[in-house]
Amino acid sequence: MSSSTGEVQRERSDAHPFLTAALRCYQCKKCSSGCPLSFAMDVLPHQIMRLVQLDSPQEILVANTHWICSSCQTCTTRCPNDIDIAGVMDVFRQQSVDNGTVSEKEPALFNRLFLSTVKRHGRVHELAVIGKFKLLSGQWLNDIPMGLGMLLRGKLRIFPNRIRGRHEIRNLFKKRTRV
Ligand code: SF4
Ligand code: SF4
């Protein structure tokens, strides 16, 4: 981390509420010790909170953490300071997409395809996400036995299951320009 403690970010009126909440972090590390994917992260969740405090977004954006994060919410549940760490990861995923600094191409592609089916149908259509992901990532042969098994057990729907209020979901997406 390049900044000193004296440069700790003060609350800014233009900061995202999740980032403002991160200023409360006192580095107890409960988030990182409970994270099931910390083994694969360049920078651990508690270190991300510290970088937010030090106003070092570039160091966060080049790390893989926010793309490895599965939004399981374990960290958020464990945090004694009520910081939505999973929400902070979401903020940086969005910032990565917005400014083109995507550190992990495949999770970013999966994330985009996942959101595009939610935008269209109101909920995810797994088969469409998997099919497009395989096509665009070139990983045709991976996971075929597992995929076939899921199809045979009815775990993957051939057709999307659309919700009634999907226009409301689309309105939410309209507030964001890029999905
Ligand atoms: S659990 Fe909360 S307070 Fe503790 S290090 Fe993580 S974000 Fe900070
Ligand atoms: S939400 Fe992300 S950072 Fe938090 S515990 Fe789950 S995988 Fe780890």
How does this structure look, described?
- There is one protein chain.
- The chain is mainly alpha-helical.
- The chain has two domains: 97 residues, Fumarate Reductase Iron-sulfur Protein, Chain B, domain 2 (Orthogonal Bundle), CATH 1.10.1060; 74 residues, no CATH class.
- The chain is built from eleven helices and no strands.
- α8 runs antiparallel to α9 and α8 packs across α11.
- The longest helix is centred in the middle third of the chain and has 17 residues.
- The chain is globular.
- The protein starts with 16 loop residues before the first helix and ends in a 5-residue tail after the last helix.
Summarize the structure.
This protein has helices at residues 17-22, 30-34, 45-53, 57-61, 65-68, 74-78, 85-99, 105-121, 126-137, 144-152, 166-174. The chain is an all-alpha fold.
Name a few traits of the molecule.
single chain; 179 residues; mainly alpha; Fumarate Reductase Iron-sulfur Protein, Chain B, domain 2; 2 domains; 11 helices; 54% helix; globular; disordered N terminus; binds iron/sulfur cluster
Present the secondary structure layout.
Blueprint: H1 17-22, H2 30-34, H3 45-53, H4 57-61, H5 65-68, H6 74-78, H7 85-99, H8 105-121, H9 126-137, H10 144-152, H11 166-174
This protein binds iron/sulfur cluster (2 copies).
Residues 35, 37, 45, 69-75, 85-86, 89 line the site of one iron/sulfur cluster (SF4).
